[in-house]
C-alpha cells in the first residue's frame, strides 16, 4: 500500500485511486470519503531538515509524501504551492502568537488569506489543483470541443468555506462553482464575501434551511450517478482529501515556530481546535500519525456538541426535539452550528481498522454499518475499545455562548486589545480550562474577528478603546453596496437544486 494511492472509507476493498482521481472525484461512491492507503512516516531527520523551511517549502515536503512525482512533477508542485500562498498577507502564512507565556498558551493565526479565514490555506491550493489537472487533460482541445473536460463544483457552507472556495475558483478555466448556504444563518460579512463575486463561473444559492440540509443535498448530488456523470461534479468541502492534506502543513509550521519561540527542545504540545466538520483537527491527526510529536488533540465545540458527547460516552447521536425532529442550535459561532461532522467518518475508519478489523475491507464494512445505523436511527454507539483508543489521542470541551463572550472580553483586557473571533474564542476557552503550566497549548485561530461583528460587539461594546469600525479591514468595507449574485431556493430540496444548477449552467453558456 502506498501513501500516494487512495481508498474509500466505506468500500475499502475497491481498487485504489490516484491523487488526481481522488481530488477530482471528491466523494467516493456510496457516500464514502477518500483516505490515503497508508499514512506516510516522516524522515528520521525531519526535525533537522525541515525546521527552518519557509511555509511553502514545508508544504512541498509534506505534499510530496502524498502525491506521486509521476502525477505532479516536483517543479509543477512547487509552482502550484508558491502561487497558492502568494495571496496571503503574512510572509510566514500562518504566524504563531504568544497569548500567555506563563500559561504556555499560544495562538495559531490561520486567517491571513484573501477571505480572512483558515479555509483559504486549503482552498487556494485546491482551486489551483483543479485548474492544473483540467488544463493538462484538455491540452490541445479547442474551447468549443465537446470532448473538453469540465468540472461543476458543488459545495455547502456554514460561512467561511463558501467564500474561500469562491475566491479560490473564481475565473478558473473549465470550472463552474455552486455554493449552497443556509439563508440568514451566515454572518453579514460572510454573505457579502460570497454574493458580491460576480464572475461568470460563480453561483450562490441561499437555501431556506440549515447547514446540515445544504450538506446533505451536496452529498446526495454526488451519489446521483446520472447527474454526477452528466456534470462531472467536484467537491470543495472538507470531504475532498486535498482540503485535509493542505491543512497538515500548519501543524508542522507552528511546531517549528514554537521551538524557536519557547526555547524548549521537546515541548509537550497539545492542539486545541474549534471544530464543526472535523476537517481542521483531522489534519492534526494525520500530522500526529506521521510522527509530529503532538501529545493530544482537543476538540472544542459550541452548544452543538455531538463530538463532545461522543468523546465522553462513545455515542454519536443527533439531538432530537420533542416532536422527533433534529435541531441545530444557532450560536455566536455559526460555522460550528452543525449536527453531523462529515470528516469524523475518516477518524472512525482508522479506529475501526486498528481496534476491530483484520483488513481494510472489513474496516470499510464496519464503518458502512455504523453510517447506515446513524442515518436510520440518528444514533450509533461504538464498542468501548474504540472509544478508549480514541481518547488516548483526543479530548473535548463544549463551550457556551456566554463563555465565548466572556473569553473575548478576557483576552482583550489581558492582552491590551487583541480581539478573538467567536470560533477562536471557543478554542481559547477550552484551552484555558486545560492549561497547567506543564503542557504547551496551541489554540487554532480560524477567522478574523471582523467577520463576526455581532459576537465581538456583544463582548466588547462599552469597553475602553474598542470600536468595531476600527476592526474592519478595508477589504470588508469595500464590499458594502456592491451588486449581489445570489439565487433564493425556497426549500432544501435536491431536485430544486439540480434544476437551479442546470439553469445557471445554461445561462453561463455551458452545453450538456
Brief rundown of the structure:
It contains 21 helices and 15 strands.
Keywords:
512 residues; 15 strands; 21 helices; 45% helix; globular; single chain; Rossmann fold; alpha/beta; 5-stranded parallel sheet
Break the fold down into its secondary structure elements and pairings.
Blueprint: E1 6-8, H1 19-25, E2 34-36, H2 46-50, H3 55-66, H4 74-85, E3 96-100, E4 105-109, H5 119-137, E5 151-156, H6 160-169, E6 175-182, H7 188-195, E7 202-207, H8 211-223, H9 225-231, E8 233-235, H10 241-262, E9 269-274, H11 279-290, E10 294-301, H12 306-313, E11 315-317, H13 344-355, H14 360-377, E12 379-381, H15 384-391, E13 394-398, H16 401-415, H17 422-434, E14 440-445, H18 453-460, H19 468-471, H20 474-477, E15 487-489, H21 494-508
Parallel strand pairs: 4-14, 5-6, 5-8, 6-7, 7-15, 9-10, 9-14, 10-13
Antiparallel strand pairs: 1-2, 3-4, 11-12
Helix pairs in contact: 3-4, 3-10, 4-5, 5-6, 5-10, 6-7, 10-11, 13-14, 13-15, 16-17, 16-18
Amino acid at each position: 500500500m502506498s501513501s500516494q494511492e487512495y481508498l474509500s472509507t466505506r468500500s475499502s476493498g475497491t481498487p485504489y485511486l490516484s491523487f488526481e482521481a481522488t481530488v477530482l472525484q471528491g466523494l467516493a461512491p456510496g457516500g464514502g470519503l477518500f483516505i490515503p492507503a497508508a499514512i506516510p512516516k516522516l524522515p528520521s531527520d525531519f526535525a533537522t531538515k525541515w525546521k527552518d523551511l519557509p511555509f511553502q517549502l514545508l508544504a512541498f515536503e509534506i505534499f510530496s509524501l502524498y502525491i506521486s512525482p509521476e502525477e505532479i512533477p516536483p517543479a509543477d508542485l512547487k509552482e502550484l504551492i508558491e502561487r497558492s500562498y502568494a495571496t496571503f498577507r503574512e510572509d510566514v502564512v500562518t504566524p504563531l502568537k504568544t497569548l500567555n507565556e506563563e500559561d504556555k498558551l499560544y495562538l495559531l493565526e490561520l486567517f491571513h488569506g484573501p477571505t480572512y479565514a483558515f479555509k483559504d490555506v486549503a482552498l487556494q491550493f485546491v482551486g489551483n489543483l483543479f485548474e492544473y489537472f483540467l488544463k493538462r487533460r484538455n491540452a490541445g482541445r479547442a474551447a468549443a470541443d465537446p470532448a473538453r473536460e469540465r468540472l461543476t463544483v458543488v459545495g455547502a457552507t456554514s460561512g467561511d468555506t463558501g467564500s474561500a472556495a469562491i475566491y479560490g475558483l473564481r475565473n478558473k478555466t473549465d470550472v463552474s462553482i455552486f455554493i449552497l448556504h443556509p439563508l440568514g444563518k451566515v454572518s453579514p460579512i460572510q454573505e457579502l464575501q460570497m454574493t458580491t463575486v460576480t464572475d461568470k463561473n460563480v453561483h450562490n444559492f441561499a437555501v431556506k434551511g440549515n447547514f446540515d440540509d445544504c450538506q446533505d443535498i451536496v452529498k446526495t448530488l454526488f451519489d446521483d450517478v446520472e447527474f454526477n456523470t452528466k456534470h462531472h461534479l467536484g467537491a470543495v468541502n472538507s470531504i475532498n482529501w486535498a482540503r485535509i492534506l493542505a491543512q497538515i502543513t500548519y501543524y508542522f509550521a507552528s511546531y517549528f515556530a514554537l521551538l524557536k519561540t519557547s526555547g524548549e527542545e521537546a515541548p509537550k504540545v497539545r492542539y486545541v481546535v474549534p471544530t464543526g466538520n472535523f476537517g481542521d483537527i483531522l489534519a492534526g491527526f494525520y500530522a500526529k500519525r506521521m510522527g509530529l510529536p503532538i501529545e493530544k488533540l482537543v476538540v472544542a465545540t459550541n452548544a452543538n456538541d455531538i463530538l463532545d458527547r461522543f468523546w465522553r460516552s462513545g455515542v454519536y447521536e443527533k439531538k432530537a426535539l420533542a416532536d422527533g425532529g433534529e435541531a441545530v442550535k444557532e450560536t455566536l459561532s455559526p460555522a460550528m452550528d452543525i449536527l453531523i461532522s462529515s470528516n469524523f467518518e475518516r477518524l472512525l475508519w482508522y479506529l475501526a481498522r486498528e481496534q476491530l478489523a483484520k483488513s481494510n475491507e472489513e474496516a470499510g464494512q464496519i464503518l458502512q454499518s455504523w453510517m447506515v445505523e446513524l442515518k436510520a436511527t440518528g444514533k450509533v454507539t461504538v464498542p468501548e475499545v474504540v472509544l478508549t483508543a480514541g481518547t488516548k489521542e483526543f479530548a473535548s470541551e463544549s463551550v457556551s455562548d456566554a463563555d465565548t463572550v466572556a473569553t473575548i472580553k478576557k483576552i482583550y483586557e489581558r492582552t491590551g486589545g487583541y480581539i478573538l473571533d467567536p470560533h477562536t474564542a471557543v478554542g481559547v476557552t477550552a484551552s484555558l480550562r486545560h492549561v497547567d503550566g506543564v503542557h504547551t497549548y496551541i489554540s487554532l485561530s480560524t477567522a478574523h474577528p471582523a467577520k463576526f461583528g455581532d459576537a465581538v460587539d456583544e463582548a466588547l461594546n462599552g469597553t475602553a478603546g474598542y470600536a468595531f469600525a476600527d476592526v474592519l479591514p478595508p477589504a470588508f468595507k469595500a464590499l458594502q453596496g456592491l451588486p449581489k449574485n445570489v439565487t433564493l431556493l425556497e426549500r432544501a430540496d435536491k431536485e430544486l437544486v439540480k434544476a437551479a444548477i442546470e439553469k445557471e449552467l445554461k445561462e453561463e453558456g455551458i452545453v450538456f
